[in-house]
Specification:
The protein is mostly helical and about 90 residues long. The protein has one domain. The protein contains six helices and no strands. The protein is globular and about 35 Å long.
């Protein structure tokens, strides 16, 4: 399933990926923070990195707004999710 999602992100045009930003992004973040397997967590991270790199400006702003809202929340689990996603913007 993760391989298929990676292929979709890579092969589909930016507009198609942008239209599904929340449908793709949020489940990947949930998987990233809740996955026990280091191997699968690394795979999800690499998919998120490709996904973020493929997004258009408007969708990228949407993803950043999610991260910022999570950082402003009182729940530490959301801080963890935001910080894990944030690193993909810089690496």
């Amino acid at each position: 399933m993760l391989e298929m999602l990676h292929a979709i992100i890579v092969k589909f045009p930016v507009q198609a990926v942008d239209e599904q930003v929340e449908t793709i992004f949020l489940p990947l973040v949930l998987r990233l923070v809740n996955e026990d397997s280091n191997q699968l967590r690394a795979m999800v991270g690499s998919i998120l990195k490709v996904f973020i790199g493929k997004l258009g400006q408007r969708s990228l702003q949407r993803v950043l707004s999610f991260c910022l809202s999570w950082l402003k929340n009182d729940k530490q689990q959301l801080w963890r999710a935001a910080s894990q996603v944030w690193e993909f913007f810089y690496y």
